[in-house]
Amino acid sequence: MRERQRPRRDFYQICAETYGGTELSGLGITNYDATSQVYHPAASPWNIVRSSIDTVVAKIGKNKPKPTFLTDRGDYKMRRKAKNLERFIDGIFYQIEMYRRAIPILRDACAFGTGIMSLYRRGDKIHAERVFPWEMIMDIADCRYGNPQNVYLVRWVDKSVLAEMFPEHEGSIYTANITTDDVDHVTDYEAAADRVLVTEAWHLPSGPEADDGRHSCIIEGVTLVDEGYTKNYFPFAFLRYKEPIAGFWGNGLGEELQGWQQEINITSERVQQAHYMVGGGIWLVPDGADIVDTELTNGIGMLIHHKPGMPPQYINPEPVHQETYQYLKDLGDFAMKYSGISAMSAQSTKPAGITAAKALQTLDDVETERFNLVGTNYEKFFMDCCDQIVDLAKEIGEEFPDFSVRAPFRKAAINIDWSDVNMERDSFVMQVWPTNLLAKTPAARLQQVQDLFSAGILDRASMLRLLDAPDLNGEDDLASAARDICDEQIDQMMDADPDDAEASYVYPEPYQDLIYALHSAQNHYNLGRLQGAAEANLALLRRYMGDCQRLLTMQNPPPPPANPIQAPMPGVGPTPVVGAPMAPPPMPGAPLPGAMPQAGPPPMPGDAPPQPALGIPPQQ
User: Fold this and answer.
1) Beta carbons within 8 Å of 141's beta carbon, 6+ residues apart
2) Confidence (pTM)
3) Mean pLDDT over residues 212-221, rounded?
4) Distances from the Cα of 589 to the Cα of 177, 396, 516, angstroms
């Protein structure tokens, strides 16, 4: 099987050479490096393949897909668990540097057609590694319809690492042969690398109830692992640039542009040779002239002898026709257009006459449509990775009950236990969204946020948060602090254990944004009722809203009844008292003086009796 797939390995070598612009001796343990044996400089300065691939990687890779979990009409507790599961996955992504590791996988998909990531666990840690497509072998007939039952991974592993994983076979590992003849056409010249060739194989179960799945791992003469395999997928996430018509391996952008690149190389070489030949000028010297050749040349140009009768003459003809230069230029432009890449993306230049940020964003969106399928495959790649991470987390949770992950949350980090987010696989549906639907350029982003702010959809605090400018982070922290503390208080009460909910109650303070706290608690209360939140948690919110209402009443007491004898005429304001101090201006977010406070929610069974708010309520 390995010998039959050598042409595919040669194809991958050509793709690597086309992208790198230089020749390679092989794809083995050392000869993959262009400088490992004999360095060959770049053959052409017009590397359209590399420029196109780098542009697509930058365009698609700037998106950071975020998996989200949706419950099937779950109650409030189940939905909160799904939300925390999203944060748990965020923590795993941060731990394994998922977004950084996905970029080389995307580049492999563009250059070779298929990018591969291996996801596995070692102890209580989840790991992610890049796999080269030529390291994976599949039977051609088995993967005809794109769903093979068997996969073989052949790669080099450090002997000390392998001995640490399988200490019972340490002796056989260190004495294993490291010949490379069976892997590459060219034998690697370095034998100092203390590595061994490991072949790992997977066979998927034949059906949901079948027990014929198998996983094996071997080196020369030794079987390291031979165990059953119950999962219905291989432990790899695959990313294809384009789906093939038949078979498993995808079609890449480098493959599409190889014909263009070859024509560019041929034309460029002809132009180069023409300039070397006549680019330095030509001296026409008659035969028999008393002229020494070395006096007429300094290494640039050439000497041509002709019949006597004419004086020496210097000419400088045009190396190639102007149409040849234009043809070479058009080849690059046509190749970019063929792949769907505009000059704005490839050269980071804006079209003439386009200055508005919104117009530039519109042009970028139009170009993005060309790569919509690539972007969809990129998002599905993240969903496949997330699926496998959830299964790996279940395995770790069974072996390590205290398994937890540090996850980013509101510009801080929180610890999330797997036992608190573990859900049955059929109880949720996974979707993927980009982390930010706004534009990436500062000008276009500012214009979008300003439009939303002008329409009244965003307030000032949300506007500062969405701008995400480094010099505005401090202002954003200050502007959102009053709301963040209210949200944390409400989350703490809604996440409390219903059997001990009273201990989780948090008193509001008069220094908070009480109006926002009252409205946010009311929204969470209504949402909790719709989603079946526990009555004990709802009672905490009713008590919280009552305390907020009382504090608002203390800050803005109702005005005393007016004296009917000294009542002003209709339309005339009250006469100010001479010498009386002026009232201070209202605080930001506080209601206008004299405004009647809204009535609080009616008490429900189980609520604590209202307590008079005297000064600052006690803190817990």
Assistant:
1) none
2) 0.72
3) 92
4) 75, 48, 8
